[in-house]
Write the structure tokens for this entry.
Amino acid sequence: QVQLVESGGGLVQAGGSLRLSCAASGSIFSISAMGWYRQAPGKQRELVAVTTSGGTTNYAASVKGRFTISRDNAKNTVYLQMNSLKPEDTAVYYCNAEISRDPSPYKYRYWGQGTQVTVSS
């Protein structure tokens, strides 16, 4: 099986920074895209940032210029550096990864358990 374990959430004042980490482990042959989503109370889950195995990145407009996604392929880990945090960034942040468990082209999509980020005004 495969697990995604997140860390790094917490409480921070507006304007502050946090760094989230997500490590994938288990039966992994290769990892394609890795990304971060978030879900605020009463809202749908939304994409925050995603990165491909080749290093291409994409960001939600609301976080562009403030958040940076990166990954360490050797460690099967993706990071989200969040700067200039705003109260509207408050949400549960979920890690997501597209993982192949063998040489076949079939990919499975896995989710982490979520980590709470709270930004106070």
Remarks:
- The mean pLDDT is 96.
- The radius of gyration is 14 Å.
